[in-house]
Amino acid sequence: MLAYQGGTAVGRGTYWNLSNGVREVLDREGTLPGHQGTRYLKAPPIVMVLMGPVIGFFYVLILPFIGMAMILTILARRVGELLFGALGTTVAFGWRPVEAYLMSRRKKAKRDDRQGKEDSAAAR
Length: 124
Prior knowledge:
Layout: E1 2-5, E2 9-10, E3 13-17, E4 23-26, E5 30-31, E6 39-42, H1 45-90, H2 105-123
Antiparallel strand pairs: 1-6, 2-5, 3-4, 3-6
């Protein structure tokens, strides 16, 4: 396997762009598209055929861990939704967004206390 950069003169063959996975097939000698930062990999066809089972083997090894990670993510999301749902029903804000408090609460509470005292004095 050989690594090449974009803009390099190469022989015929199949070249894989490592940055985006695009395959470039050159039927005759030519230059690889892209700039110097673009990297290409040329592998003989037999190596590509043999890499299939190796990649599949690693996929089978990693697949259980992917499944466990998905299950843990789903469980964590459900627990978070339950906790935030429970907190949302028990937590109360001290204000209501649709009401306008043009008079402060303290003044209103003092006025209510005075009216209550006046009412109790008038009832005597």
